[in-house]
């Protein structure tokens, strides 16, 4: 594979105290970042916004990695729509996770089979691929448009979960093979207490809610509690988060994670990871020259959890 260093920061590098230049990828648009730490290396799986696009017409997923959070290696395009014979459009947000030495990259794309968006999964023996469609068909495809943005968590007891959706939030168990569902797909009821606003179809027209789930969920667990980070507030989006003792709920709305700020993008999409003793929030902006709402780029902010494991409010660079 043709890997090359894509960004050599001019910062004086002092361990991981130095911060990367944002956006971290300067050579193309890299949206919807999903971090994964493996063997002491930080991998970031992203989408790819086409230059000059007028919508999220997206055809491939890209991969970057680093061992110092400053110098990033470009691993190219380990996965594209062509990998999935059932998919023909909209290579949208995705996340990769390792289990038993295999790497499972959960994606969403437009399904030729149903005409809606569907969840799929690719598998590889290495974090950089080569990836192939793990099952030759979608993991979940019911013809609806809200099957986007899968996030995956392997719980402390080994049970894996997949969660996704816009504007509804769905979840299911994954079997140990990671490529088949181990439960019915269930919807998480959005309540004012859980997400700052009720389900989309129960919201009163014209009423201002404290917040509302929109899309781009990221599921993680800290201090025994599930944490769901997500894009909120419709257009434009900011990041918010909720917490729960069970994935099925009830969820508790915890507040804004990253204000809308001056990101120059009407969407935001995040993932969080601890790496070499530091915590990082990945998100996207439209700040690369020529970028914007359909030309988004991965950025990262280092942060410290509050003493009780909750998130501080994190601001985008330059805000
Ligand atoms: O990248 C296309 C879509 O935009 C993603 O699926 C959403 O999360 C939003 O970032």
From TrEMBL:
<keyword id="KW-0624">Polysaccharide degradation</keyword>
<keyword id="KW-0732">Signal</keyword>
<protein>
    <submittedName>
        <fullName>Family 43 glycosylhydrolase</fullName>
    </submittedName>
</protein>
<keyword id="KW-0858">Xylan degradation</keyword>
<comment type="similarity">
    <text>Belongs to the glycosyl hydrolase 43 family.</text>
</comment>
<feature type="signal peptide">
    <location>
        <begin position="1"/>
        <end position="20"/>
    </location>
</feature>
<keyword id="KW-0119">Carbohydrate metabolism</keyword>
<keyword id="KW-0326">Glycosidase</keyword>
<keyword id="KW-0378">Hydrolase</keyword>
């Amino acid at each position: 594979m043709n890997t090359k260093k894509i960004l050599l920061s001019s910062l004086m590098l002092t361990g991981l105290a130095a911060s990367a230049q944002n956006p971290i990828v300067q050579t193309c648009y890299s949206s919807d970042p999903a971090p994964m730490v493996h063997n002491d290396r930080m991998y970031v799986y992203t989408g790819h916004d086409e230059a000059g696009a007028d919508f999220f017409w997206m055809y491939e997923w890209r991969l970057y990695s680093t061992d110092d959070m400053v110098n990033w290696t470009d691993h190219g395009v380990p996965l594209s729509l062509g990998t999935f014979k059932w998919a023909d459009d909209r290579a949208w947000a995705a996340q990769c996770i390792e289990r038993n030495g295999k790497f499972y990259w959960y994606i969403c794309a437009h399904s030729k089979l149903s005409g809606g968006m569907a969840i799929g999964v690719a598998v590889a023996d290495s974090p950089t691929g080569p990836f192939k469609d793990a099952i030759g068909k979608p993991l979940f495809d019911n013809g609806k448009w809200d099957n986007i943005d899968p996030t995956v968590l392997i719980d402390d007891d080994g049970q894996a979960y997949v969660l996704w959706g816009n504007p509804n939030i769905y979840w299911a168990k994954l079997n140990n093979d990671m490529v088949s569902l181990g439960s019915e797909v269930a919807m998480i009821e959005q309540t004012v207490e859980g997400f700052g606003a009720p389900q989309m179809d129960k919201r009163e027209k014209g009423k201002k809610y404290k917040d509302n789930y929109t899309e781009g969920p990221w599921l993680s667990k800290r201090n025994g509690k599930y944490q769901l980070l997500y894009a909120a507030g419709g257009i434009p989006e900011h990041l918010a988060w909720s917490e729960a003792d069970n994935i099925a709920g009830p969820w508790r709305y915890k507040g804004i994670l990253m204000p809308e700020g001056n990101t120059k993008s009407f969407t935001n999409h995040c993932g969080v990871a601890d790496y070499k003793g530091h915590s990082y929030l990945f998100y996207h902006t439209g700040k690369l020259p020529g970028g914007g709402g359909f030309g988004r780029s991965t950025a990262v902010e280092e942060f410290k959890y509050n003493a009780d494991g909750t998130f501080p409010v994190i601001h985008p660079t330059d805000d």
